[in-house]
Design goal:
Blueprint: H1 11-107, E1 111-112, E2 118-119, H2 153-164, E3 172-173, E4 196-197, E5 246-249, H3 252-259, H4 261-265, E6 271-279, E7 282-290, E8 293-296, E9 299-302, H5 305-314, E10 318-325, H6 335-347, E11 352-357, E12 362-368, H7 372-379, E13 395-397, E14 401-404, E15 410-413
Parallel strand pairs: 5-7, 5-14, 7-15, 10-11
Antiparallel strand pairs: 1-2, 3-4, 6-7, 6-10, 8-9, 11-12, 12-13
Length: 416
């Protein structure tokens, strides 16, 4: 469309203006060509820099992996070497012990008769007393008999002691009628006054006192309270955890999905508080309180919580849980949901978490499993979205919830 005054412009001016416009177009094309060339070069340089940087990162990762593999290999070799060293030490200890036992068995013992005659020397210690001229170099059998006393002197005694080595670990006893059998002797040869080597005495286990049970104190458990929580557990209940029943209106979820529809279309989560009363030993959810809040596709944060507190205080309401939407996901409890619900369930064991997934037409009523699940989340120090173990399970669908129609539910939307 041309300017309204275009016809009134002189023809020469039109030609000049047109020429200037065409020159501007040509100049623009030249500038565009120069810029395209420059940007192409800059992009090529950038890509080359990124490639080299990625190669350097890959090289460092490869070196790190190699270091880790070498570290593991060295640790494995060190463990094997240590195991082998311990094995050799044990074998050396066993060998020395066996040699000591064989030496003691082969050496026997030395007994000295009351009259002063040496008796019972082992063949293995003959060299130790070789300096004593009155004892034969080859002793094969000794028979006790009275005779002149033999003074072997301190030197001979020291040689015998040095040859025998330290005493064995077990006990030496000298009963009045003890005896030993010298090398080459028989069981009928008694040597009065000789030393007999015996193993340590093992206590008789039959002497251990027997507990007849009379010392166990009796405890009267008839006075033990039947209720463990002033509002919940310990009552007669049909669910497996002994919790009071929570009555939920069948149209509560439908009401909440309708008031959250705008946020759901914008892929934003919506949350609300479930509150109610205690009557006839069961809880009934009577109020759906929607606080001021901000949300994202996978989270929802409330604000101005004091308004919720004032409302519940004025209407004498008990907090019985919470409800929220998953606008683009299925109905389940994320790690953030589990940590959020933990505070509710710590204050009220019956507290429930309702998750609505309008996109998949799913609704779940969940709770942390009393005991393991509740304790695990209460002691988990991680924040944000993070994995939790699935076996054993941490949460499950609530078994103490009953859906009943005809229950009046008041909606208090504080966002308005």
């Amino acid at each position: 469309m041309k300017h309204p005054g275009y016809k009134t412009v002189p023809e020469n001016d039109k030609k000049v203006n047109k020429k200037k416009v065409m020159e501007a177009f040509k100049l623009a094309e030249k500038i565009k060509s120069v810029l395209r060339e420059r940007f192409t070069k800059e992009e090529a340089i950038k890509q080359e820099s990124q490639r080299k940087e990625q190669e350097e990162i890959n090289k460092r990762l490869q070196i790190q992996l190699q270091i880790e593999e070498d570290k593991k290999r060295i640790e494995s070799e060190n463990r094997k070497a240590e195991d082998e060293r311990k094995k050799l030490e044990e074998e050396e200890k066993l060998r020395k012990l066996k040699e000591e036992q064989e030496r003691l068995i082969a050496g026997g013992g030395v007994g000295v008769a009351a009259a002063g005659t040496a008796v019972g020397p082992a063949a293995g210690i003959a060299a130790g007393i070789g300096s004593v001229n009155s004892i034969s170099d080859s002793i094969s059998e000794v028979t006790p008999s009275p005779g002149p006393s033999l003074d072997i002197g301190q030197t001979g005694i020291d040689q015998i002691s040095n040859h025998l080595g330290p005493p064995p670990a077990y006990s030496h006893v000298t009963p009045p009628e003890s005896h030993i059998i010298p090398p080459g002797g028989t069981s009928g040869q008694y040597l009065p006054g000789a030393t007999k080597v015996l193993p340590p005495v093992i206590p008789n286990r039959d002497l251990k006192p027997v507990n007849t049970g009379s010392e166990i104190p009796s405890v009267d458990r008839s006075n033990k309270p039947s209720v463990d929580h002033f509002t919940s557990t310990g009552i007669e209940s049909t669910n497996k955890f002994g919790l009071k029943d929570v009555i939920v209106s069948t149209d509560l979820v439908e009401k909440f999905i309708l008031l959250a529809a705008k946020n759901t279309r914008a892929n934003t989560e919506t949350c609300a508080i479930l509150a109610g009363k205690l009557s006839k030993n069961q809880f009934t959810i009577t109020h759906l309180i929607v606080p001021k809040q901000t949300g994202t596709p996978d989270s929802c944060s409330t604000t101005n919580e004091e308004e919720v507190f004032d409302y519940q205080d004025n209407h004498d309401l008990i907090t019985l849980g919470w409800i929220h939407t998953h606008p683009s996901q299925t109905a389940f409890m994320s790690s953030v949901d589990l940590h959020t619900h933990c505070s509710y369930q710590l204050m009220m064991p019956e507290a429930i978490a309702i998750v609505c997934a309008p996109k998949f037409d799913e609704t779940g009523i969940f709770g942390l499993l009393p005991g393991y699940g509740l304790n695990f989340i209460a002691n988990c120090k991680q924040s944000g979205f993070h994995p939790h173990p699935k076996d054993p399970p941490i949460y499950d669908e609530c078994s103490h919830v009953k859906l009943i129609s005809g229950i009046k539910v008041t909606v208090a939307d504080m966002r308005l």
